[in-house]
Description:
4 helices
Amino acid sequence: xxxxxxxxxxxxxxxxxxxxxxxxxxxxxxxxxxxxxxxxxxxxxxxxxxxxxxxxxxxxxxxxxxxxxxxxxxxxxxxxxxxxxxxxxxxxxxxxxxxxxxxxxxxxxxxxxxxxxxxxxxxxxxxxxxxxxxxxxxxxxxxxxxxxxxxxxxxxxxxxxxxxxxxxx
Length: 169
């Protein structure tokens, strides 16, 4: 369904959990499309003295990440907090690429995650009723007649993606 040239970049937001971050990167790198996907890692600065060492460990870990088309690391000079970091990073990448895949440092993705989420971005790109796509689904009883995808009226923040949309008057 999707063409390689249309792969969305991944924005990975990290802070002070080196082991979580390592697992997230390892799982993402196991995706077939990782080698052709740009990865942007946004590392927030320590919010207080107790997180300085853990933030340093995370920054060491993300300083050399193989397995992606490119890796850009953005180390914040001061603490933006998760919301501020996501707003800034997602806005920057949507402006540059027109779309972005968003992950936090505690998500372990399926090896099919990048294919699924890029296909979903392409499929729903021109549907104004869809504001974002997600690969997470809360536990439900699956029935044989259940569709492969569902539309929810609320966003999921665990493994999601969105587009830059034109403003409408």
